[in-house]
Amino acid sequence: MARFNTQLVHGLPVHDNDTGAVNPPIYNSSTYTFPFVGASPRYDYARSGNPTRDFLEQQIAQLEHGTRGFAFASGLAAIHAVLSIFKPGDRIVAGDNVYGGSYSQLNDHFTRWGLQLTTVNTSDDFERLERAISGNGDTAPAKAVYFETITNPLLQVNDVNRIAAIAHRYGALVIVDNTFVTPYNQQPLDLGADVVLHSATKYLAGHSDVIAGLVVTSSEDLAERIYFAQNRLGGILPPQECDAVRRGIQTLALRMDRQQKNASAVAHYLLKHPLVSKVHYPGLGEGGDRELAAKGLKGAGGVLSFEVKEGVDPAVVLNNLKVFRLAVSLGAVESLAELPARMTHFEMPREERLKVGITDELIRLSIGIEDVDDLIEDLGQALEKAYEALNDHQTIDGFDQQIDKLLS
Ligand SMILES: *Cc1c(COP(=O)(O)O)cnc(C)c1O
Question: Where is the PTM N6-(pyridoxal phosphate)lysine found along the chain (predicted)?
Answer without folding.
Answer: 202
